Prior knowledge:
Helix content: over 70%
Number of domains: 1
Radius of gyration: 20 Å
Distance between the termini: 6 Å
Low-confidence stretches: none
Shape: elongated
Number of helices: 10
Amino acid sequence: MVAMFDALAGAFRSLFSLRMLWLMIWPVLAAIVLWAVLAFAFWTPLQNAWLWLYEYLGIAEWMTGIEPAWIGAALQVILHLMLFVPLVMLTALVLTAIFGMDAMVKTVSDGFFPQLEKRHGGGVIGSAANAFIAVVVYIGLWVVTLPLWLLGPVGAVIPLITAGYLNQRLFRYDALAIHADAGELKAVIEQNRGGLWALGILLALVQFVPLLNFFAPVFTGLAFIHYCLGKLRDRRSGQPFTA
């Protein structure tokens, strides 16, 4: 727990530079514009997809029979937002991971881990494969568990778990790729799975809070870099494992 909160504190300190501020802004704006344009351009297919979703959730007949009609319309808007917000966050996270991790790793490394040797155990192919797996599994989990979102408290937990998976899977590889060798990269991930998952779920909470989610992709990336480089440093110095 100490390492996790140290990573969050370090990520907060690393946020305040012009490069990080710009990186906080453009992926989210790009994701919003992208999905808004796609929604406008493919409105009819999307409407059909939403109708399929209502059938999949087993609520199509129930929603069409709601009186007064404005309640049914409001529920449809909520469901649309349940689709739109995760898509925007997923896109912003992927854009941040692809275009921002090198800058974020440099910022954290120079400021907090200047003595940590760079052994370049990761590469472009590994990073691309890791991101592809993260996105595909996340979308699969999201689609399969969508009916559970309507089950009261369970519906509040499932999105956090799926987002937690995406966070830890998407950022852990690139956080270590420059500094760890291939063996260290694998070992740090395997030995800290619980901590990585806990950090991912905790950061998922930020991603679902209005306004704070605007900064969430970069904050998430920075937190995982701090956490993973801290674990790598501890491993090299022979310190015992702590979550």
